[in-house]
């Protein structure tokens, strides 16, 4: 089916100059089969319609190995059929090899109406929480910018993750937060400088109660240039329970007025049986005003036991009843129509105060290394992919030589002009957003 479509598209473009016909199709990477998703207010949108992430985490082999599920066409096409059966509209992929081609898989996903949330980091090209200063260097930024170059052309790229669980429950890991925030800023600047579509960029936080709120606030505080486009966190507190028992009611309360789209980058506790009642809650008015859905962890069965499909060789076997339970939960709880109570305006929040849990000076952010700044104008060039030697100790590729001290917390209203601007919403809405944000900013003072 989708394979045939793709092959015929290729065939059509190959003969296009010889015998042009009305039915000629564009090459895969140029075809716009899905509307692009924008972040605006505290939600995602396709045009005027609210967009909810009804997704699944997709990383066969687990996130510690190096595999690129989007470069493996045969297995991708097999899995897309399962995604369609599940009724998901988004997959999250934890790493890709930016030296490989992804056209066929990305096209198959788009043809199925499925979006991608992509982690730009790989195990060897990422911020090292043990030495964030050294790992925030030119070689690292070159490689993640090359990943952006490769994926920005696909309309079904929903968002990029600038980091995944860099800050965790270990003492001392919060000192890496300014570097991840700098990376988020740099990615957003790169997307702007290269004149790509304004693909949302944000961080995916670990399921750590002790610093969840600080992390969320930190990524949405300060001038607009340093704020994320959304925030996501992993949450395993719903163990076949309900909205109140799981504590999700508190997580709605705590994030009300957060000011940016929020979603769960991983959910799906396995302590009890799995009926995926999470989806009913996520799609209900209890949550839609604050949350934009989530991603069930995960598709393939790995050593940690969260999968709903067993991969053996070429075969993907549905695990029962989990696979059917997820598919049923998706069907029984469609995305609600209307705005779902989303806020039309985005806003900054106050930076978390520096203390023994959150060891971060809110006013200091590392400036981009000069070597990486150069990519803004000339482009990053080709990515090194999984074969690269790694960037974490590549200090000689260029390090940050100064700190910005203008990352203070008091400019919420300024931020909102451009937050609304990047979403491409109408001029009227922009004005309204800026006004409301000014009022909100005044409340903070
Ligand atoms: C809600 O926020 C408060 C204050 O930051 C925090 O102490 C509490 O742990 C949060 N609760 C949840 C469930 O996130
Ligand atoms: C599947 O869902 C049903 C309810 O729809 C539930 O009774 C059953 O326990 C679930 N199975 C597993 C293994 O979680
Ligand atoms: C930037 O600030 C951090 C944290 O205070 C500090 O460790 C680092 O040395 C500073 N970097 C420069 C280049 O001044």
UniProtKB/TrEMBL annotation:
This is 1,3-beta-glucanosyltransferase. Residues 334-348, 395-413 have a biased composition (Low complexity). Pfam families: Glyco_hydro_72 (PF03198). One of its GO terms (biological process) is fungal-type cell wall organization. Belongs to the glycosyl hydrolase 72 family. It is found in: Cell membrane. Residues 329-348, 386-421 are annotated as: Disordered. Its EC number is 2.4.1.-. GO terms for molecular function: 1,3-beta-glucanosyltransferase activity. Keywords: Glycoprotein, GPI-anchor, Lipoprotein, Membrane, Signal, Transferase.
């Amino acid at each position: 089916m989708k394979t045939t479509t793709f092959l015929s598209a290729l065939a059509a473009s190959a003969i296009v100059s010889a015998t042009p016909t009305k039915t000629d199709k564009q090459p895969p990477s140029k075809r716009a089969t899905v509307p692009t998703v924008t972040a605006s207010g505290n939600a995602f949108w396709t045009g005027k319609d609210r967009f909810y992430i009804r997704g699944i985490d997709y990383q066969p082999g687990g996130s510690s190995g190096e595999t690129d599920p989007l470069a493996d066409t045969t297995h991708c096409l097999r899995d897309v059929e399962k995604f369609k059966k599940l009724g998901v509209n988004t997959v999250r992929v934890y790493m890709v090899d930016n030296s490989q081609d992804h056209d066929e898989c990305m096209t198959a996903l788009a043809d199925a109406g499925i979006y991608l949330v992509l982690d730009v980091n790989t195990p060897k090209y990422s911020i090292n929480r043990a030495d964030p200063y050294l790992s925030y260097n030119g070689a690292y930024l070159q490689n993640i910018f090359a990943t952006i170059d490769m994926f920005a052309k696909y309309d079904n790229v929903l968002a990029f993750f600038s980091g995944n669980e860099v800050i965790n429950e270990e003492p001392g890991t919060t000192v890496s937060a300014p570097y991840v925030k700098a990376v988020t800023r740099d990615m957003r600047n790169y997307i702007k400088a290269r004149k790509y579509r304004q693909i949302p960029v944000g961080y995916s936080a670990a399921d750590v109660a002790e610093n969840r709120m600080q992390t969320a606030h930190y990524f949405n505080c300060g001038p607009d240039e340093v704020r994320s486009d959304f925030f996501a966190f992993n949450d395993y507190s719903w163990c076949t329970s309900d909205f109140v028992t799981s504590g999700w009611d508190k997580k709605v309360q705590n994030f009300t007025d957060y000011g940016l789209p929020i979603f769960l980058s991983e959910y799906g506790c396995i302590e009890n049986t799995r009926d995926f009642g999470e989806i009913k809650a996520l799609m209900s008015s209890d949550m839609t005003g604050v949350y934009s859905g989530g991603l069930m962890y995960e598709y393939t069965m790995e050593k940690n036991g969260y999968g709903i499909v067993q991969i053996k060789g070429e075969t993907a076997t549905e695990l029962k009843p989990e696979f059917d339970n997820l598919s049923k939960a998706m069907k029984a709880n469609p995305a609600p129509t209307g705005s779902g109570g989303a806020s039309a305006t985005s806003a900054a929040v106050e930076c978390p105060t520096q203390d023994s849990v959150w060891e971060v000076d809110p006013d200091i952010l590392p400036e981009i290394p000069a070597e990486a700044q150069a990519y803004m104008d000339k482009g990053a060039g080709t990515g090194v992919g999984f074969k690269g030697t790694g960037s974490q100790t590549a200090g000689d590729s260029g390090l940050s030589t100064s700190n910005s001290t203008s990352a203070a917390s008091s400019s919420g209203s300024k931020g909102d002009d451009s937050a609304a601007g990047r979403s491409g919403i109408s001029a009227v809405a922009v004005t309204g957003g800026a006004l409301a944000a000014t009022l909100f900013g005044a409340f903070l003072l």
